[in-house]
Design brief:
- By secondary structure, this protein is mostly helical.
- The protein has a single domain, classed as Winged helix-like DNA-binding domain superfamily/Winged helix DNA-binding domain (Arc Repressor Mutant, subunit A), CATH 1.10.10.
- About 70% of the residues lie in helices and about 5% in strands.
- It contains six helices and two strands; from the N terminus they run ααααββαα.
- It has a two-stranded antiparallel ribbon with strand order 1-2.
- The radius of gyration is 17 Å and the shape is globular.
- The two termini are about 30 Å apart.
- The relative contact order is 0.09.
- The mean pLDDT is about 95.
Length: about 140
């Protein structure tokens, strides 16, 4: 059985290397990986609240509020009223949609370059393994609550 410390270290190092590269790609657009994650969730859900984003990303609501503030200053988000007047639904503005498209293309190209040395079977196996690990982490988190 592999040393668990090596698995952990490898996963964390890979995540750090990826986020560093993503930050480099996003920098010309005044974004970083944590801001990108918010845009991604809003696009994925076709609009959502800050609470939805915090839950999806598993981060604190105050940290999401800070990110939303920055994105609002960049004029890439719009707020829409919801039935619950205490909550605002966030959507991408026209500028935000254009920015999302541009950055998505760059990140997709990066991802293709990253996985290009892997054959199709290895890509599928790797993705399957990562999903199993994430699902198991979610289960472990749920059982601790």
């Amino acid at each position: 059985m592999p040393d668990p410390l090596k698995i952990r270290a490898s996963l964390l190092r890979c995540a750090r290397l990826m986020s560093d590269e993503i930050n480099t790609l996003l920098l010309p657009h005044q974004l970083n990986y944590s801001l990108w994650q918010v845009l991604y969730v809003i696009q994925l859900k076709q609009g959502c609240t800050s609470i939805d984003i915090a839950e999806y990303l598993n981060v604190s609501k105050p940290s999401i509020a800070k990110r939303i503030h920055v994105l609002m200053q960049l004029e890439v988000l719009d707020q829409v009223d919801t039935e619950d007047k205490r909550q605002k639904k966030l959507i991408l503005s026209a500028k935000g949609q254009q920015l999302f498209q541009t950055c998505s293309e760059k990140l997709d190209m990066f991802e293709q370059q990253l996985i290009s040395p892997l054959d199709q079977a290895t890509q599928h196996s790797t993705l399957n393994t990562l999903h199993k690990l994430m699902d198991h982490l979610q289960e472990m988190k749920g059982s601790q609550s």
